[in-house]
Amino acid sequence: MKQLNHQDTEQKPKIDISLNVQAYTLIIALIAIALIFSLFTGGEFLSPRNLSNLFNQMAVISVLSIGMTLIIVSGHIDLSVGSLAGLAGGIAAILQVWYGWGTVSVIAVGIIAGALLGLWQGWWVAYRAVPAFIVTLGGQLIFRGILIGISQGRTIAPLEPSFRFISNSYLPYSLGYLLAIVMVALFFFLTWKDRIKRNKLALQLASPLVDYGKVTIYGAGILLITFMLSLYYGVPLPMLIVVFFGGLFIFISNKTAFGRYIYAIGGNEEAAALSGINIKRHTLYVFVLMGALAGLAGIMLTSRLNAATVSAGDMYELDAIAACVIGGASLTGGKGKIVGAIIGALIMASIDNGMSMMNIQTFWQYIVKGLILIVAVWVDISNKKQTA
Amino acid sequence: MSQYALEMKQITKTFPGVKALDRVSFSVKKGEIHALCGENGAGKSTLMKVLSGVYPTGNYHGDIFINGQPVAFRDIKGSQDAGVAIIYQELALVPEMTVAENIFLSHERMKKPVIDWHSLYAEAQYWLEQIGLKVDPQMRVSDLTVGKQQLIEIVKALTKKADILILDEPTAALTESDVDVLMRLLRALKSKGVTCIYISHKLGEVLEIADSVTVLRDGKTVSTDPIDVLTEDKIVSKMVGRALTEFFPYQAHQIGEEVLTVQDYQFKHGLTGDLLVKHASFSLRAGEILGVAGLMGAGRTELFTSLFGGYPGESSGQVVISGEAVNIRKPSDAIAKGLAYVSEDRKKYGLVMGMEISKNSTLAALKKVMPNHLIDRTLEVKRAEELTKKMRLKSHSLEADVSQLSGGNQQKVVLSKWLFTDPKILVLDEPTRGIDVGAKYEIYKIINELAAQGVAVVIISSELPEVLGMSDRIMVMSEGEVTGHLSRTEATQEKIMTYATLRRGKNEAVKSSGH
Ligand SMILES: Nc1ncnc2c1ncn2[C@@H]1O[C@H](COP(=O)(O)OP(=O)(O)OP(=O)(O)O)[C@@H](O)[C@H]1O
Ligand SMILES: [Mg+2]
To answer: Whole-prediction pTM value?
Structure first.
């Protein structure tokens, strides 16, 4: 009985916080992971050099998980993104190394190739009603096959410095700080605007302390990370790419009809169709976007490795899916957030990175990552049960 | 031993931001049929979920006694073991399984270690015969009508040897003949000593079958009375807290020019090739309320969903909207032409569960909250607020998930969504299914207002009083054909039923002087 009363009195202030339980669990998990690893590595995990590495490592999976969030929200799955990234990177490398194309044009070709192959898969899913699981499982094999075929099984290297620049360069310190400050200011501005609007509409409003407190903490986090990175070479360019595309797609998912529609389609396809939403077309768009992002990820990967290999991107789809799911996306569709997926990608990358630093054998990394995936979903589900 | 089969004392259940039940007490005598009435969102379903262990012990305050013994269920299985069986407002069958498989799901007949299919089917057959339901146990559930599925749910509960059977709005989707089967069944169960809790918004049924009635309002118990001291009006005034004098606020209104003309319309199902609508011809005027009556499966839903472009298949014939011949192939075409269709199944076709109330209500006309091509959340919430206020939606926040709303309030969200498209022609398929009397009255008033503003309204309904009470004109369908038109003045229940049971071949379609 005591316990019940406790729950009851807690109910009121819980409202605003409980809406975001997922985001908090994620951040708490992330901090816990960071602390554990720095403990075991004597602080080395959180050193500027390692943080810089970590953000570089997570970038490719992050870009994939942004697209994967759209796919999962719309109720599908894409098992081909690893192969697709490998193929797009391979095409770019072949054109540059064998045929001497310029960097800008091979980047464009890589991304467009990704988008076209995405279009092809999306057509099968949307207009031919073949389940995405099957289409993209097929795609996984086909794209890998094509890559091996066109590269004749060889590793293609080295690329031009301008190409290597994408994944191996850093922003000047001043620019890094400037962007960080702009971002923090933007956060404050958006929160302020949101509060004014919600107030006008008499919607539920958290206390200013909570809202601005949150922004202050996030802002401090951003500045701290920028500072840490500037102790090394500065903000890595791949990180900027992730932030840019993350922001862009968060905007798309919140502000455009397309974004709203994919949540509706994944949530209840029939109701969405009867509301006049063109299911097929929007499904197709989702796959095209995923393809383009996979193309971009392939470019970034090739740039980082300074080579295209036949096994590039192998199994990346699983990491991307895991990142989304850890970030709170539901495989039944209709639910999922891009921020969540990016944090999920960071968690996955941290585990890889931290365990390698501790010299733990690779097989353990697989086991731990697998367990974390299961536990993450379990935490999500039990959170939901409590609020139901 | 206690004279009560069930006592629930001081039950309180809170959801974040909502007190759904506030010290509710509820006692049911052994062997009686006890009706639980109340407005949408009064807490009926929640109370039953507490009883059946959906909300486990610790999740609510208060005490439950079964046959005088205190109980605390940790899950649904716990309540089942104590003899409580619940049939939910929403069906819980596996569509791809056969009738018999569904009936015995989770308590299959075994010949260890495997399922004994022979006795499973034989027993299913026995139970179906017991309740007089002519259904082959080997049929797939998805091939049955909603009404039959509901009865299968009841059989399923019966085979679990329930002492206390809870039915949460079992008849919302049933035809009259299925309702009769159900009533007979409940009486038979009562004679066998089964205690029954019956939730329904159809007060006629409640008066017919119940021994006592408990009324809930805003999560509190209002009263429990034996049936003989109650009348429909008394129950209603207890439910809404005031007397409700008229049920159908019909007003004669200005009828304008023809907005929809359908000529010789035929519709063939996309997969099976069945002819679902045959030679339908009718017209509809601005400001007119057309009632569409017929038995379950008469093709009413098929006629209007296919006109709306929401049913895969082939159509022929002529459709003219506001003087312009149209070819509607998909719902967005229909919406663009000012046609709106509120489906009969809100869960399957109406709402996106897991999405906010406000987002659901703007989904069919999102462009209207997108000035300069981007969604304006402020505008969206404001519009949603205006719409839902008109509907008297009961919810603590428009940012809440629709699935948290009670059934009736979900229906109001679907209606809001379609009103937001500013339809010229509004088709309402069973618009008041599962809606309480107070809210029904609100919805009828809204329908009247819309008609007064010149919207042409079609009400498809299986409830004859509703069709008779609200329509300017009534169209009756049977087996995919329009079998009659009746004006408001000449329509009676008998005439409608005659047309509704007309069959092709036996009788030629009868046209009356209706319009
Ligand atoms: N999971 C939930 N989360 C939050 N609120 C809920 C949840 N389930 C029910 N509620 C709220 O509890 C109240 C009671 O709902 P309940 O479903 O019991 O109503 P009801 O009497 O069965 O209504 P109806 O006749 O419409 O079915 C409503 O205000 C509803 O919004
Ligand atoms: Mg209910």
So the answer is: 0.84
